[in-house]
Amino acid sequence: MELPRPLLLGREFVDRVARQSPARLALSVFAAVIAVFTALLSVPQATAAGTRAPFEDALFTAVSAVCVTGLTTVDTGTYWSLFGQVVILVGIKVGGLGVMTLASLLGIAVSRRIGLTQKLLTATETRSAGLGEVGSLLRVVILTSTALEVAIALALIPRFAVVGESFGDAVWHGVFYAVSAFNNAGFVPTAEGLDPFVSDWWIGLPIVVGVFIGSLGFPVILNIAQRRRAVRRWSLHTKLTVTTSAALVVVGTVLIAAAEWGNRATFGTLDTSGKVLAALFAGVMPRSGGFSTVEVGEMKESTWLINDALMFVGGGSASTAGGIKVTTLAVMLLAIVSEARGDRDVEAFGRRIPRESLRLAVAVVFVGATAVLLATLLLLEITGLSLDVVLFEVISAFATVGLSTGITADLPAEAKYVLSALMFVGRTGTITFAAALALRDRRRVIRYPEERPIIG
């Protein structure tokens, strides 16, 4: 059956753009999605007061939701109506599917089939499955994420009901927190957030588990599900992601606990069980979760610095988390160890890591650090605030974390636009963003003679 001419032209346009630059197509789709959610949050029905939200607040919230960040300029639970909160929740769910997956879904919607370019797009994002498996992979990704979100919601709903919420509120809050946790979004549907549950393991632990699983990435989740009884057969990417993620959680939890244990403004007034949960919660959330059970602004500056480092690293590749990604850190550390030992190859778990991966890791770190530096300079000039709070906010935006020292709501419009752009860059990926701006790949026929400069 021949497609109508508008759909045929649309398919040809998508295929042409996808062949020329899949990354640019993905970015265009992501920007279009943000525009749609900005428009939805701009209608009077989206606010509790029934008035139009200022454009900078609607845009910032839409970017934060679709980029699964969690930074907010207005209180989610009181400023937005139920309709507005539903829009935010849908934005989180859509954003969690990933940039490349969104581009693939657009191609499917236009062509009513999965063509070669769409398969290549999805394969780029997931790093798994062959071309013939992409259709089923998309279904598995959506079903797996939804199933995990349902499981988290089922764990939370009874507790919300026990603490005195109506059944309707308990269901809504359980679903909202489940979707927000798995997608590492950090949005909360109530004004008080999770502060009342700082010592509540029944609430805290499911959210911690949801954030951690969501930060691993779909390739890792699927690889573990397929080979859960054969750990040795896990892919190198899975092994690096799981081990590095677990190490960062342990290190972050211990360091934050040591810094905040006696701080009466945060952990100091809690019992031992509450302190342990609060430390674990605070150790996991910089991975890109963005939730908090204590006032981040009351933490010590040393704790902010620990959070800065953890947030910049972020979570796993092709996950709902941001940052430079844990595999980037792992490859960099392995390269340092290899160089210190005098080894020619970078190796891990009985596998040799190609030099191309190391070059890509260096590029990701450098581009990410440059984006953070430039945004920090801009915000320092715009706001006149101190470096510690500005740097924290900038890294939180770039790594799509959502933790805040409390300055976001009071920022001028220009600063909100800077953070919005940074969230977009951080979510779509520094390398993807750079590739989208490139007109074409540069392939050299002639290679120059090799000569080593002095390093160090």
Helix-strand pattern: HHHHHHHHHHHHHHHEEHHHH
Let me know the number of strands: 2
> Kindly state the mean pLDDT as a whole number?
85
Rg (C-alpha, Å):
22 Å
Largest sheet: 2 strands, antiparallel
Estimate the global geometry from the Cα principal axes: globular
Structural class, please? mainly alpha
How would you name the oligomeric state of the polypeptide chains in this document? single chain
Helix count equals: 19
Helical content class: 55-70%
Low-confidence stretches: 103-134
Beta-strand residue fraction: under 5%
User: Between the first and last Cα atoms, what is the distance in angstroms?
Assistant: 65 Å
- The largest sheet has its strands arranged as 1-2
Describe the model:
- Strand 1 and strand 2 form a beta hairpin.
- The chain is globular.
- The longest helix is centred in the first third of the chain and has 29 residues.
- Helices cover 64% and strands 1% of the residues.
- It contains 19 helices and two strands.
- About 7% of the residues have low confidence.
In short:
The chain is mainly alpha-helical and 456 residues long.
What's the arrangement of secondary structure elements?
Blueprint: H1 5-20, H2 22-41, H3 55-66, H4 76-79, H5 82-96, H6 99-111, H7 116-126, H8 134-162, H9 167-182, H10 201-216, H11 218-226, H12 236-260, H13 272-284, H14 301-313, H15 326-341, E1 346-348, E2 351-353, H16 355-383, H17 387-398, H18 413-428, H19 430-437
Antiparallel strand pairs: 1-2
Helix pairs in contact: 1-2, 1-6, 2-3, 2-5, 2-6, 2-19, 3-5, 3-18, 6-7, 8-9, 8-10, 9-10, 10-13, 11-12, 12-13, 12-14, 12-15, 14-17, 15-16, 16-17, 16-18, 17-18, 18-19
